[in-house]
Design goal:
Blueprint lengths: L1 H5 L1 H23 L5 H77 L4 E10 L8 E3 L12 E3 L4 E8 L4 E5 L6 E6 L5 E5 L10 E7 L9 E4 L11 E10 L5 E8 L8 E7 L15
Antiparallel strand pairs: 1-2, 1-12, 2-5, 3-4, 3-12, 4-5, 6-7, 6-9, 7-8, 8-11, 9-10, 10-11
Length: 289
């Protein structure tokens, strides 16, 4: 401590402080200018204050940015939930419209064929590797469905039920070579057998065989079921003729047919569980008529 009091630096600092005190007292006594030490201290302190203020603003801005980002993330999440809800609502609304149109179409069919008993069903599975477009429906024996029941859409014939479980069933379509449907040309009355074909199925078509070689069937003609087999009721639309060729030997004609029903894209179908004349003719054990 004695060394400190004896040092020149201590006496210099003490002298400067004494001078500043004297000047401050003098100026304060006479009024007027700001105290020099205030000016001096201000020139030293102000930059430090500004630096701390800038740092504080920076920290505040940094945390404010993250707080704003979190708020935006929350808002975006809420908007996404609202958008998903609106999309689901739109989908439900569209499905309701489709179902209303679906049942409206079948109402006319029901009025036309009062002997038909229907069970509505929805396609729940398809095998993408199956070129014959077999499908699984969400209706089964608990809904009154039996093997060989006919499956249709409002546009036309799909096929028929091949196997039944309590809550679902499988369906073979017109593209399957094992499915054989007696049909006739609504314009010419020429008749034949419509069935699936290995060469036509990949194109979503089937064929009509056993056409008399003198038949006048042409592209654009509409084919409907003949009935009388006990499996398919009469008058169901089968499809439209796309082309007609002669079979080898030219003894019969062969027509390529585009099914009226959308076999690859249909979602809602009707199963005819009963109709007048059903089962009057023996039904084969394997798919086909």
């Amino acid at each position: 401590m004695r060394r400190l009091f004896r040092s020149k630096r201590f006496w210099w600092i003490g002298g400067i402080l004494t001078v500043l005190i004297v000047i401050t007292v003098t100026v304060a006594a006479v009024g007027g200018w700001a105290a020099p030490q205030n000016m001096f201290l201000g020139s030293v302190v102000m930059p430090i204050q500004r630096a701390f203020s800038s740092a504080a603003d920076g920290v505040s801005g940094f945390f404010g940015m993250y707080s704003e980002r979190d708020a935006l993330k929350q808002e975006n999440a809420e908007l996404r939930e609202e958008l998903n809800a609106l999309r689901q609502e739109k989908q439900n609304w569209q499905e309701a419209l489709n179902e209303n149109a679906f049942y409206k179409d079948f109402l006319g069919l029901k009025e036309e064929h009062g002997d038909y008993l229907f069970c509505s069903a929805r396609v729940i599975a398809r095998d993408p590797a199956d070129i014959y477009a077999a499908m699984t429906l969400d209706a089964g024996s608990l809904d009154g469905v039996s093997a060989h029941d006919v499956v249709i859409t409002a546009d036309g014939l799909v096929g028929y039920v091949t196997a039944v479980a309590p809550t679902y069933c499988t369906v073979a379509t017109l593209l399957d070579p094992a499915v054989n449907v007696g049909a006739y040309d609504r314009r010419t009355d020429d008749s034949g057998i419509v069935s699936g074909s290995l060469d036509a199925a990949p194109d979503g078509a089937c064929v009509m065989t056993n056409l008399d070689r003198y038949a006048t069937v042409v592209a654009g003609d509409v084919l409907v079921t003949t009935g009388g087999s006990g499996l398919f009721p009469a008058g169901l639309t089968v499809g439209t003729v796309e082309s007609v060729t002669k079979d080898p030997g030219e003894l019969t004609l062969r027509a390529f047919v585009r099914p009226a029903a959308d076999l690859l894209g249909c979602r809602n179908v009707m199963i005819i569980t009963a109709f007048e004349g059903q089962g009057e003719v023996a039904v084969p054990d394997t798919p086909g008529e």
